[in-house]
User: Fold this.
Amino acid sequence: MLVTLMALEIERKFLVVSDDWRVQVERSADYRQAYLAHNGLVSVRIRIAGDKANINLKSAGLEIQRDEFEYAIPIDDARQLLHLCSGAVIDKTRHFVRHERHLWEIDVFAGANAGLIIAEIELDSAEESFDRPQWLGIEVSGDPRYYNVYLADHPYAEWSVKPDPAST
Assistant:
């Protein structure tokens, strides 16, 4: 079994203000994911991306730096485990966009989270600088509403107030 161990993930999240990033897409993948458990300390996620699947354990919190462990699992097991998950299954297309020296992951959500577009960047350190593309809006790294585990229980379609991605 392939083990991907990211003892520490350093990730920042932003809303997207335009579609200008679309001309820079290197590749895209459809994702289905849901949560077996989340208790405020850790979340346990099942994710299917194309013909691959994994189980992921991530420490909870609103910091840009969190512990994360990911393990490949058979896709048939993942499909079956999705039925055991709490909350909604999150469907999204992840687009990979290179800007300057970083690879951005832009998630375009579907289903109950349609209309939400989040750009994420993984960094080597919390202090690492990066060039902000013009299509990048406000940072939402510390806002729990933009974490997938929250979206599974509180889909974007149910939000009474939708934020302006460009507001500061």
Summary: The radius of gyration is 15 Å. Helices lie at 75-82, 148-153. Strands lie at 3-16, 25-38, 42-49, 52-59, 65-73, 86-99, 102-109, 117-122, 136-139. The mean pLDDT is 90.
